[in-house]
């Protein structure tokens, strides 16, 4: 059994991220059991994924991620405009695809090096991304 932690809104993500990382450290056995969701339509995802992998790796336990493109673009853009902060969403579909591909490659590289310590869920409706992951 595994736990997938959905991180859907930027205003909740810091707390969910902290909770997920703590659970990864606490609940690791012989494989990762807790998967944190990385919304690849957000500009900060590449940095966040790198930071989290390095943090968990430094503690010698496994890391798992659920990679999604993201479904809350309009809501996030509206909140940014309403509250006067920078739009956290990539400006184009292509930028989101680049981030998703980088995230996927990062996870697959880690899985290749340590298959029992890393895991990924490829959560997307994008056919090209699924075909890329399978290949």
Plain-language structure description:
- By secondary structure, the protein is an alpha/beta fold.
- Helices cover 51% and strands 16% of the residues.
- It is built from 5 helices and 4 strands, in the order βαβαβααβα.
- The mean pLDDT is 94.
Topology:
Blueprint: E1 3-5, H1 13-27, E2 34-39, H2 45-58, E3 63-68, H3 73-83, H4 93-113, E4 118-123, H5 127-134
Parallel strand pairs: 1-2, 2-3, 3-4
Q: How much is the radius of gyration in Å?
A: 15 Å
Terminal-residue CA separation: 27 Å
Biggest sheet, strands in spatial order? 1-2-3-4
Assign an overall shape: globular
Oligomeric state of the chains present here: single chain
Largest sheet: 4 strands, parallel
How would you state the average pLDDT, rounded? 94
Number of DSSP-assigned strands: 4
Low-confidence stretches: none
Put simply, the count of helices is: 5
Name the helicity range: 40-55%
Order of helices and strands: EHEHEHHEH
Helix/strand-derived category reads alpha/beta
Taken as a percent bin, the fraction of beta residues is: 15-25%
Catalytic activity: trans-4-hydroxy-L-proline + a quinone = (3R,5S)-1-pyrroline-3-hydroxy-5-carboxylate + a quinol + H(+); L-proline + a quinone = (S)-1-pyrroline-5-carboxylate + a quinol + H(+)
Cofactor: FAD
Family: Belongs to the proline oxidase family.
Domain Proline dehydrogenase: 2-134
């Amino acid at each position: 059994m595994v736990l997938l932690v959905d991180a859907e809104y930027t205003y909740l993500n810091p707390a969910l991220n902290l909770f997920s990382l703590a659970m990864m450290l606490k609940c690791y056995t012989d494989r990762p059991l807790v998967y944190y969701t990385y919304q690849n339509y957000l500009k900060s995802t590449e940095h966040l994924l790198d930071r989290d992998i390095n943090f968990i790796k430094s503690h010698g336990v496994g890391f798992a991620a659920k990679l999604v493109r993201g479904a809350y673009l309009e809501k996030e853009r509206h909140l940014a405009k309403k509250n006067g902060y920078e739009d956290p969403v990539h400006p184009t579909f292509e930028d989101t695809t680049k981030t998703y591909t980088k995230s996927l490659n990062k996870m697959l590289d880690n899985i290749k090096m340590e298959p029992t310590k890393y895991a990924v869920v490829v959560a997307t409706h994008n056919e090209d991304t699924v075909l890329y992951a399978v290949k």
